[in-house]
Amino acid sequence: MHTKQYRAAGGVVVDEATDHVLVLRRPGRLGPGGQPEVRLPKGHVEPGESDLTTAVREVAEEAGLPELDVVADLGEQRVEFDWQGTHYVRHERYFLLRLLRGAAQSTPEAQFERWWLPWQVAIEEVTFEVEREWLRRARATWRRSS
After folding, report:
1. Residue 5 in contact with residue 79, Cβ under 8 Å?
2. Residue 18: exposed, middle, or buried by beta-carbon count in 10 A (0-12, 13-18, 19+)?
3. Spatial distance between the Cα atoms of 72 and 86, rounded to a whole number of angstroms
4. What CA–CA distance (Å, rounded) separates 37 from 24?
């Protein structure tokens, strides 16, 4: 089996006013349980781009949230999975981001629906365990910083 490695970065976005966290529902792609995928915004790190720049860009593109405050670097983890005959090794870094009050919001990418959920509900709704771990890390960091 062919192996492909890449870097990705994303954000866990908190709305401080409601203490809700952003997840993206993807109705066009079903998860392992047959329900639409629920994900955190993230994407490939482009050549010459920092992980933080990627995370902010991806949240702006996928979720339509271009105005964010960086709260913390949540660290990095290695994720491995097989998909369509290829073994993937993804090095992910996530950042805890705060939605700025009164910030401009645009329409999310067509494939996504923006959901603001309480922390525990978001953890339960996210499709993949690795993203649940990012949410748990972010919640712990958020509580320490608030």
Report:
1. no
2. exposed
3. 33
4. 8
Residue range 77-86, pLDDT digits in tens: 999 888 889 9
What is the residue-averaged pLDDT of the chain?
93
User: Where do the DSSP E strands lie in the chain?
Assistant: 2-15, 20-30, 36-39, 42-44, 68-83, 86-99, 113-118
Domains and CATH numbers, the chain: 2-145 (3.90.79.10)
Q: How many residues does the chain have?
A: 146
Single-letter amino acid code for the residue at 37: E
What does the block give as tokens for 19?
A: 């203490």
- For residues 122 and 119, what is the distance between their CA atoms, to the nearest angstrom? 5
Phi, psi of 65 (to 5 degrees): -125, 90
Measured at the CA of 129, the angle between CA 70 and CA 111, to 5 degrees, comes to: 70
Residue 99 C-beta-side C-alpha neighbours within 13 Å: 22
pTM beyond 0.90: the answer is yes
